[in-house]
């Protein structure tokens, strides 16, 4: 049995091995690779025995030289570039965008050969940049982290991209924002190709309560990313880092070399609101994420974003979003 165009049906009663080849870019993101491959490992066997029963994986490379991740940890390829058709998926794990040549020419030729043979290609983290650079994302929609969306649009203005989802499956291309969503994407492939039981086994050992779907949204981008003025951005970053205890407006102004009155003028001109209003907005955006993606009690969320009690928090939240925290949480639960 072979997956066709990321087929959506359930797995057959007697599944064959799910075979995945990994291509690691120079300065690749270790967490994305580790979460993806560990989901395969735990789904492949029972009781964390790590046997390659239902899945197999190889780290492919043009040489056996160690490949350094962005955090400095190195990984050794376990296989040369063999026939791509041996694998059900080829996963390209990207990393730092500042690396000029993330993969070598032989790697590029291998990816093109895999594409010509109809092997589905997945770009993990910034792996989609590598695929797009060599013309393998044409006519396919790409999902990237909000952090990299602007860079993708600038580099590939003719290619469709979105940063509102965790991952995307588009015919014979997959793309993933990276981070913990790598486990979600791997879990979906395990469920489709092996079984729901294998997926559940992997997630339980990884301490993941439930895999998220391609329809789940990325956690909201930091509010400071919406503004171009360096002083506004710097102050809002400080706000984001000081939600629970808070920091005074005069202290925020001083941190960027302005008086309180000057900071007020800058915020009204560049952000369309006062620093105090911006601070409240930052807190409420954080609260909205916690409501959607955690089961924390309301009082804990209120305290986390700087409110003394849940009732005051609920009133402030409703003034900004037009719905109560309970309503937002209930809506998010139905979406999942």
Automatic annotation (TrEMBL):
PROSITE patterns: HTH_ARAC_FAMILY_1, HTH_ARAC_FAMILY_2. Residues 233-331 form the HTH araC/xylS-type domain. Signal peptide: none annotated. Keywords: DNA-binding, Transcription, Transcription regulation. SMART domains: HTH_ARAC (SM00342). PANTHER family: HTH-TYPE TRANSCRIPTIONAL ACTIVATOR RHAS-RELATED. This is Carnitine catabolism transcriptional activator. It comes from Rhizobium tibeticum. The gene is cdhR_5.
